[in-house]
From TrEMBL:
This is ABC transporter ATP-binding protein. It holds the Pfam family ABC_tran. GO terms for molecular function: ATP binding. It comes from Rhizomicrobium electricum. The keyword ATP-binding applies. Residues 6-231 form the ABC transporter domain. CDD domains: ABC_MJ0796_LolCDE_FtsE. It comes from the Bacteria. Keywords: ATP-binding, Nucleotide-binding, Transport.
Length: 231
C-alpha cells in the first residue's frame, strides 16, 4: 500500500490551564490513505471537531505529530500551513459560505485568484468543476438565485476547483432537507468512486455516515471504533 496521505501519531490537544484544563484529544492515532471516503463521528465533546481542525490546519496539536503527505505539519510556520490549506485542502461547510450576490462561476474563481491563476484558466477550471456537480447551466446565476441544494453543489465545486489532495466536509447536509441531503451525499460518493477524490466527512447522522466507506467514531477524546478501514 502507498504511504498515508494523512497520519496522526499520538496526537493530544489540551485547552486551558491548571484545574480548568480540558483534554480534547488524548493520544489519537489515525491513518488515512488517498482515495478513501471516511466519516468522522461522535457526540458533542468527543474530540471529532478538534481532530478535524487539526487535519484542516486550523489548529495544532499540544503533543504528537500530524503528517500530511509525509511532511510534519507541526514544523511548518503559520504562513506555510496557510499555503498547505490553499493548495492541497478543500473545504465544504454546513453554511455553504458563498458570496450571495456573486455568480456561481465567480464564487469558484475566487480561490484561483488567490493562487494567481490567469482569467482564462480560472474560467475553464470553474466551468469544468460546475459540470462535475451537475450545474453546468447555472454558472451565471448568483448564489442567491440557487436552492440550498444547488448552493451546496457550488460549494463542493469550489472545494474541487483547486484540485486538492483531500476534501474536508463538515456537516455538509446540516442545512438541507432529507431528500436533498441524500442527493448531496450521493454526489460526494460518486466523486469518490469515479474520480478517486479523498473525502473526510464530519457528521453525527448515521444515515449520512453510511455513504462513506469507513466510519471512525470518537469518544472522550479517543478513537472508539474504526470500521471499514483498508487492510
Amino acid at each position: 500500500m502507498s504511504s498515508p496521505l494523512i497520519e496522526l501519531r499520538g496526537v493530544t490537544k489540551l485547552y486551558g490551564e491548571g484545574e480548568a484544563m480540558v483534554s480534547a484529544l488524548a493520544g489519537v492515532d489515525l491513518t488515512i490513505h488517498a482515495h478513501e471516503f471516511v466519516a468522522v463521528m461522535g457526540p458533542s465533546g468527543s474530540g471529532k471537531s478538534t481532530a478535524m481542525n487539526i487535519l484542516g490546519c486550523l489548529d495544532t496539536p499540544t503533543a504528537g505529530q500530524y503528517l500530511f503527505q509525509g511532511t510534519d505539519v507541526g514544523t511548518l510556520s503559520r504562513d506555510e500551513r496557510a499555503m498547505l490549506r490553499r493548495y492541497h485542502l478543500g473545504f465544504v461547510f454546513q453554511g455553504f459560505n458563498l458570496l450571495k450576490r456573486t455568480t456561481a462561476i465567480e464564487n469558484l474563481e475566487l480561490p484561483l485568484i488567490y493562487r494567481g491563476m490567469g482569467r482564462k484558466e480560472r474560467h475553464k477550471r470553474s466551468s469544468v468543476a460546475l459540470a462535475q456537480v451537475g450545474l453546468a447551466e447555472r454558472g451565471h446565476h448568483t448564489a442567491a438565485q440557487l436552492s440550498g441544494g444547488q448552493q451546496q453543489r457550488v460549494a463542493i465545486a469550489r472545494a474541487l476547483v483547486s484540485e486538492p489532495a483531500v476534501v474536508f466536509a463538515d456537516e455538509p447536509t446540516g442545512n438541507l432537507d432529507t431528500a436533498m441531503s441524500h442527493e448531496i451525499m450521493s454526489l460526494l460518493r460518486r466523486l469518490n468512486d469515479d474520480r478517486g477524490i479523498t473525502i473526510v466527512l464530519v457528521t453525527h447522522e448515521e444515515d449520512i455516515a453510511a455513504y462513506a466507506k469507513r466510519q471512525v467514531r470518537f469518544r472522550d477524546g479517543r478513537i472508539h471504533s474504526d470500521t471499514g478501514a483498508a487492510a
